[in-house]
């Protein structure tokens, strides 16, 4: 008897992956190949994605899995991707213009001048999404101003996950978790905002029906089935934006904040309420739609391990093992003997160390960086609690930064709550598979699918360190 699996097609900015997941959430087969944007022919500084190249990369991954998948029954397929990007298509689903990449600078000027259409505060009050130059709104305004005939000809705008789903099924849909990243939605109504669309001059007809995560889109059609080397007729289930499924796949419950710690730290929560007018008062804030109707994902982000990487390169070498830095900082008492660091190296006029003496070592400076970043986390968590109307009782930590045990302990001490560390890196894939299992009827809900997974967490509990108990 063949083992049942869900096939997750995950399109990341650096890798395209095909991953088979069983009903206990275990990965049973995977293949990956590098992904990269292309340089636009119009301007050598512009970036775009080739949809055909991405599909071919998925095909390469699926063919590499062919022997492993031949002994398994693929019960469903689901697609996850990064947010905001998409393209205008004609009535046959063919692209009218390439997919503008989130890292393309061409939309920065649109964002800078968006107040002529609607103020940034109004936009965030309605959509929840912060002012980021890669937002879908700015892409569509750029297309309207530079290629107006394409908007008139277009049958639809499809986000990148929906472009892939259309190639799989022939259906025109809009993954609601992708729409939630666009700055085009009324986040409280879970529908495209008439006010934003009218201000930008974008017709509502461009956006196909909204589908919720776990909703059946269609079945795998013969042309793409042949390309991927898969049987026709496999159900295709909606997923969409990777962040929402990473939260669910990590095991996060409503009102349990999750910190993804890497070069940037991204703090988000699954909350039943959100104060969107308050969001615009905080730089780096945003709010997206949760994978579950009725929940929101307010969040904040700031440079974190990027600061620590700079400190390592400055005071050690770029290749020095992190454990060397951790050991030296661990020998320094909490409070770093009065050395403090303001860690906003991107925009802070007063960034850097204070309280340095002739007795200060590089261990002091690194510990001060860890403590400074943790105080930034404390301030942002307090802000997020206000925005999302919740009170944190623990913090779920994922990402590369979670491997720093000293930093984890400092976080627990400063926040005064347990830090719960999940080492599994495949939270997006796991979360998407849970919704797909529910979508094909194997489980009654994504929560029931998640209940089949045995999560293993490491806990860091607050310890008494008086110097670290308050906000600076």
TrEMBL record:
Requisite cofactors: a divalent metal cation
InterPro entries: ATPase_NBD, Carb_kinase_FGGY, Carb_kinase_FGGY_CS, FGGY_C, FGGY_Carb_Kinase, FGGY_N, Fuculokinase
Keywords annotated in UniProt: ATP-binding, Carbohydrate metabolism, Fucose metabolism, Kinase, Nucleotide-binding, Transferase
EC number: 2.7.1.51
Catalysed conversion reaction: L-fuculose + ATP = L-fuculose 1-phosphate + ADP + H(+)
Entry keyword annotation includes ATP-binding: yes
A family per Pfam: FGGY_C
Pathway linked to the protein: Carbohydrate degradation; L-fucose degradation; L-lactaldehyde and glycerone phosphate from L-fucose: step 2/3
EC category name: transferase
Single GO BP term: L-fucose catabolic process
GO molecular function annotation: ATP binding; L-fuculokinase activity
Family indicated by similarity: Belongs to the FGGY kinase family.
Annotated function: Catalyzes the phosphorylation of L-fuculose.
Protein's name according to its UniProt entry: L-fuculokinase
Species for this entry: Citrobacter freundii
């Amino acid at each position: 008897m063949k083992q049942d699996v869900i096939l997750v097609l995950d399109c990341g900015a650096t890798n395209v992956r095909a991953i088979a997941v069983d009903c206990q959430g275990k990965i049973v087969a995977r293949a990956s190949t590098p992904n990269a944007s292309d340089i636009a022919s119009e301007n050598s500084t512009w970036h775009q994605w080739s949809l055909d190249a991405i599909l071919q990369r998925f095909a390469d991954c699926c063919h590499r899995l062919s022997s492993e998948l031949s002994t398994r029954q693929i019960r469903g397929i689901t697609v996850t991707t990064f947010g905001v990007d998409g393209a205008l298509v004609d009535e046959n689903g063919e692209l009218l213009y390439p997919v503008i990449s989130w890292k393309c600078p061409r939309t920065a000027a649109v964002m800078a001048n968006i107040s002529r259409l609607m103020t940034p505060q109004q936009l965030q009050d309605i959509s929840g999404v912060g002012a980021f130059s890669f937002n879908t709104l700015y892409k569509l305004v750029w297309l309207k101003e530079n290629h107006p005939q394409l908007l008139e000809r277009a049958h639809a705008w499809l986000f990148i996950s929906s472009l892939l789903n259309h190639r799989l099924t022939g259906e025109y849909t809009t993954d609601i978790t992708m729409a939630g990243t666009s700055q085009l939605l009324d986040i409280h109504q879970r529908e495209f905002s008439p006010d934003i669309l009218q201000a930008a001059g974008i017709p509502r007809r461009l956006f196909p029906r909204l589908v919720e995560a776990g909703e059946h889109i269609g079945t795998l059609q013969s042309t793409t089935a042949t390309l991927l080397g898969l049987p026709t007729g496999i159900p295709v289930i909606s997923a969409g934006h990777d962040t929402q499924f990473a939260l669910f796949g990590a095991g996060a419950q409503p009102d349990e904040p999750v910190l993804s710690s890497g070069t940037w730290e991204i703090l988000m929560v699954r909350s039943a309420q959100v104060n969107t007018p308050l969001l615009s008062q905080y730089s780096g804030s945003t709010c997206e739609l949760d994978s579950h109707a009725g929940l929101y994902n307010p969040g904040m982000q700031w440079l974190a391990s990027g600061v620590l990487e700079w400190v390592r390169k400055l005071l050690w070498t770029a290749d020095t093992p992190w454990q060397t830095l951790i050991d030296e900082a661990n020998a320094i008492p909490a409070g770093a003997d009065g050395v403090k660091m303001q860690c906003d190296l991107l925009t802070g006029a007063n960034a850097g160390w204070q309280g340095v003496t002739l007795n200060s070592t590089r261990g002091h400076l690194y510990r001060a960086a860890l403590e400074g970043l943790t105080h930034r986390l404390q301030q942002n968590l307090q802000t997020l609690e206000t925005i999302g109307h919740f009170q944190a009782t623990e913090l779920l930590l994922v990402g590369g930064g979670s491997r720093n045990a000293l930093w984890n302990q400092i976080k627990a001490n400063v926040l005064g709550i347990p830090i719960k560390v999940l080492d599994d890196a495949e939270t997006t894939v796991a979360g998407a598979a849970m919704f797909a299992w529910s979508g094909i009827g194997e489980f009654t809900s994504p929560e029931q699918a998640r209940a089949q997974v045995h999560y293993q967490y490491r806990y860091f509990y607050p310890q008494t360190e008086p110097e670290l108990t308050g906000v600076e």
